[in-house]
Amino acid sequence: MPIKSHFRLLIDALKLSRVNNLFIIGCTQYAGAVFVLGRNQNPFDLLMDARLLGLVVATMIVAASGYFINDYYDIKIDLINKPNKVIVGKNIKRRPVMLAHLGMNTAGILLGVWVSVWVGLVNLVCAVLLWWYSNQLKRLPFVGNFVVALMTAATLLVLGVFYQRFDLLLFVYAFFAFGITLIREVIKDIEDMEGDERFGGATLPIVIGMRKTKYVLYVLMVAFFFALCYFLYRLASLEMTIYFSIMGLFYVHFIGLLVRADTKIAFTRLSNYCKWLIVAGIFSMAILYI
C-alpha cells in the first residue's frame, strides 16, 4: 500500500475515533485528577503518574472503540443524515472496523485492569453499554440518550474509583457533564430525525414529535439548572458560584436559541453549543484551582 494510502487510512481512522472528543476526555480526566482530587498534591507528580496515564489512555481507547462500533451500525442512517462524513463502508471496509472495535475494547479493558481491577471492571461495563447503545438502545426513546450521558459522567467518576475517593466537587462536575450531554443527545436526535425515522428508529422526536420533544428539553434544562444550583449551594464556593453564574448567561442564551430552532442547521448549532458549554465547565477546574 502506497504511503499516501497509509496516510489517508490514518486520517480516516482518526476521524472515525473522534480524536477531538478523545482529547477533551483526556484533558477532563487530567483536570479532574489534578485540580479536583489532587488539590493538596504536587501537580507534577500527578502528571507523571504512570497509572493515571494508563487510566486516561484506557478510557480514550474504550471511547474510540465506541465511536467505531457506532459508525459501523449507522452506515445507512448516516448516508442520509450526514452523507459527506461517512467513512465506514466507503473509505474503510466494515470488517476491519469491527475487528478494530474488538481489539480496542480488549486493550482498553486490559489496560484498565493493570491500573486497577475496579477500573478494568468500569471499562468492561462501559464497553458493553457502548456496544448495546450502538446496536439497539440509541433507537429507543430517551434510553440511549441517558446511557451516553451516563458514560460521559463516568469519565470523571472513574477517577473516584481509581483514587477510592468520591469528592462532592468531582460529583458536581460529573453531574454537570451528565446534564449537558443528556440535553445535547436529545437535540442530536431531533437533528437526525430524517435518517432515524427512515430506518425504523424510535427516538423521542420520532415518537412524540419535535414540538413536544422541545418541551421535554425545557423541563430537563430547568430541572438541571435547579439541581446544579443545589449542588453549588452545598459546595459553598463563592468562586464556583460566580463562574457558573456567568455561564448561566450563556445557558439562558442557549434556551433562547432552542425556542427559535426549527431547522436541522439550527439544531446542529445547538449541539455544538452544548459541547462548548461542557468544555467551559471543565475549564473552570483550572481557573478555580488558580
TrEMBL record:
<feature type="transmembrane region" description="Helical">
    <location>
        <begin position="215"/>
        <end position="236"/>
    </location>
</feature>
<dbReference type="GO" id="GO:0016765">
    <property type="term" value="F:transferase activity, transferring alkyl or aryl (other than methyl) groups"/>
</dbReference>
<protein>
    <submittedName>
        <fullName>4-hydroxybenzoate polyprenyltransferase</fullName>
    </submittedName>
</protein>
<keyword id="KW-0808">Transferase</keyword>
<feature type="transmembrane region" description="Helical">
    <location>
        <begin position="50"/>
        <end position="69"/>
    </location>
</feature>
<feature type="transmembrane region" description="Helical">
    <location>
        <begin position="107"/>
        <end position="133"/>
    </location>
</feature>
<keyword id="KW-0812">Transmembrane</keyword>
<feature type="transmembrane region" description="Helical">
    <location>
        <begin position="140"/>
        <end position="162"/>
    </location>
</feature>
<feature type="transmembrane region" description="Helical">
    <location>
        <begin position="273"/>
        <end position="289"/>
    </location>
</feature>
<keyword id="KW-1003">Cell membrane</keyword>
<feature type="transmembrane region" description="Helical">
    <location>
        <begin position="168"/>
        <end position="187"/>
    </location>
</feature>
<keyword id="KW-1133">Transmembrane helix</keyword>
<dbReference type="InterPro" id="IPR050475">
    <property type="entry name" value="Prenyltransferase_related"/>
</dbReference>
<feature type="transmembrane region" description="Helical">
    <location>
        <begin position="242"/>
        <end position="261"/>
    </location>
</feature>
<keyword id="KW-0472">Membrane</keyword>
<dbReference type="InterPro" id="IPR044878">
    <property type="entry name" value="UbiA_sf"/>
</dbReference>
<dbReference type="GO" id="GO:0016020">
    <property type="term" value="C:membrane"/>
</dbReference>
<dbReference type="Pfam" id="PF01040">
    <property type="entry name" value="UbiA"/>
</dbReference>
<feature type="transmembrane region" description="Helical">
    <location>
        <begin position="20"/>
        <end position="38"/>
    </location>
</feature>
<dbReference type="InterPro" id="IPR000537">
    <property type="entry name" value="UbiA_prenyltransferase"/>
</dbReference>
